[in-house]
Amino acid sequence: MQDTRKPIQSTGRRAALAVVALGLSLGGCITSSDTPSVQATLPDQSPQRAASPTANQREHERILASYHGAYQDPRLDAVVSQAVERLVAASERPEQRYRVTILNSSAVNAFALPSGHLYITRGLLALANDTSELASVLSHEMAHVIAQHAAMREDRARQVALVGRVFDNFGATDPDTHALALAKSKIALATFSRSQELEADGIGVGIAARAGYDPFGAVRFLSALGRQADLRSANQNAADPRMPDFLSSHPATPERVRTAQVNARQFSGPGTGNRDRATYLASIDGMLYGDDPREGFVRGRRFMLPRLNVTFTAPDGFTLDSTPQAVLGIKDGGGQALRMDVVRAPAEQTLTAYVNSGWIDNIDGTTVEELTIGGFSAATALARGDQWAFRLFVIRIDRDVYRFVYATKQMTSAANRAFQDSVNTFRHMTPAEASSAKPLRIRIVPVAEGETVDRLASRMATDRKEERFRILNGLGPTERVRAGEQVKIVME
């Protein structure tokens, strides 16, 4: 979580939007598109409207802010750059220039801008197991640029925004008419994006194969991506029903994997082409896994921020995630959520005055009260939206104000008590806790004679150890490890 130390517009500015912030992310084609691949004919290249360097830089900075900045590692930069050079030379548009940024995010994501700027997260690099899998992702994103998908997507997004502005400015006599028109425009955008993904999958497999990479790298990576998504949904089985479901318009990952296999077989059989697993694994050895220590650590339900020397524990059943803007949490089933961030407030402003300052609308003034949490001055109140009820806490340490928003569909006494118990865990970390809070990293280790998946997975410093070990190493549910091969383990 990034400490901006200045007042920000909370996502709870309107009470009903506080939970929507839990979906905070920048959409990318890897995470938001489980589409089948097909061979495609490239469109004629007509001159496209080029964004200004200033606009490109603004977009780049916005992406960096959303993804914890760039991840700096010369070994990774070299492996990615070499792969891009080979892919460009084998592509339909070898004159196209690309710039690649590795994002410092645990999310598994990759996407492209019309300018040819490609983005790939370290979370995605952790999931890949060889250079051909990396190449399958890069070639897919290059295909979006080559086929002008990114530019067409921007134009389509502007059309959708225009529809929304028309209704916002002039109104609709029937609210249902407005909702239907907006829903139709979103469906059209999703369908359009699906056709882009169909083309990019087919083009990308061809580029990777011509570059000498194993074209089945796409099959292996997509399989791992599907298993990773299943594991994540099992841990975080919730979504705000008001948010548009982009995935609903896309086929499931198994269909995309099957189609990728068909595409790959057009170029070669399994086991051919370059994979270069040893070089790839060496490049990710020591790479950060999960949370960046600058943003704090999530360990189960507990969040620790050594930089500011604070910690707290979420209620039972919650899954936490640290973003640059806030710590977000959601309970299994989706009926409860939380958000915590830190801002700087005027020293002369009381906490009760801060609660009533417009930070969140619909405060119930009769519920505002002062209290002490973890030895620090605090205040609390209730707020209500259309579908959610909120218990708010603000805690002052010097000039910093830590803001907790707990949301629930129904504010029962049990829910209220769970929120109170959670915020009461907020405190300074002990010196021992601060010194022992270490980031997780990918470690590449050789499999010793007689070692098993169970024994190797037991060394994982994560939850669901064996599942994560198998997914990270591309192992099926019953596959065994072989002595002498290298595997990934997540360790402190």
Q: In short, what is this structure?
A:
By secondary structure, the protein is α+β, with helices and mostly antiparallel strands.
Polypeptide structure, described:
With 492 residues, the chain is an alpha+beta fold. The chain folds into three domains: 25-286, no CATH class; 293-435, Mog1/PsbP, alpha/beta/alpha sandwich (Protein Transport Mog1p, Chain A, 3-Layer(aba) Sandwich), CATH 3.40.1000.10; 439-491, Membrane-bound Lytic Murein Transglycosylase D, Chain A, CATH 3.10.350. 39% of the residues lie in helices and 20% in strands. It has helices spanning 29-32, 53-66, 74-90, 122-127, 131-146, 149-170, 175-210, 217-235, 253-265, 277-284, 351-355, 413-423, 431-436, 453-457, 465-472, and strands at 99-103, 110-112, 117-121, 288-289, 297-299, 302-305, 310-313, 318-322, 327-331, 336-344, 363-373, 376-384, 389-397, 400-408, 427-428, 440-446, 486-491. The strands form four sheets. Strands 8-9-10-14-13-12-11 form a seven-stranded antiparallel β-sheet. The protein has a four-stranded antiparallel β-sheet with strand order 5-6-7-15, with no helix packed on it. A hairpin with a 4-residue loop joins strand 2 (110-112) and strand 3.
